């Protein structure tokens, strides 16, 4: 695959799960990949090593996206590496939280919005000088933004905000030739959805879906790579459901 040959990409939260799978997928397609992480340096290094062994180019960048200055720091590091052109931004880093309304704390609520909404908003803002015609921004939304799944009201609110940002950013940046989209996964076999690894969790997941298996991170990464590529050159302002037909 060489569809992204010569392209540069930044994937946030790329040391594990969907972010890791996306970094590997973009590298397989020929992109130079910046592997962002916050607290897992060894896992991030392993992603870079895997890309290098396959003949690709990658390096790690560390930033705490929960802090107000985190997106600005990551943008500065990105510009130092790629110069004046970033072709692909995958704003994947996020956190989840399952809690009843009465058990949700202000601290947890604020952290969810800081990581899942504030960080990608200001990361795009800070990277605008190096995003241009043909660039693609891909956010990660969730099934929870479109359907009630468990006790995820605060988390779901952050993903609803992401869906709204996609439309506003796509409208605002279309004149610059920048496309903005999102993928909305259902339950995926990652650390964030560890309950799906239990028999009860697997049965619950399969009960949601038309396709009867639990998704792997690669299933989502392929959709992100599509949106990042020229194959999706006429797609913007959209949230693509990649959930195996959940909650139809």
Task: Write up what this structure looks like.
By secondary structure, the chain is an alpha/beta fold. Helices cover 42% and strands 14% of the residues. The chain is built from seven helices and seven strands, in the order βαβαβαβαβαβααβ. β1, α1 (17-28) and β2 form a beta-alpha-beta unit. α4 runs parallel beside α5 (153-173). The chain starts with 7 loop residues before the first strand and ends in a 6-residue tail after the last strand. The model has no long low-confidence stretch (mean pLDDT 95).
Q: Whole-number average pLDDT? A: 95
Order of helices and strands: EHEHEHEHEHEHHE
The radius of gyration is 17 Å
Number of helices: 7
Outline the fold blueprint.
Blueprint: E1 8-11, H1 17-28, E2 32-37, H2 41-53, E3 58-62, H3 70-82, E4 88-91, H4 106-127, E5 136-140, H5 153-173, E6 179-185, H6 199-208, H7 217-228, E7 239-242
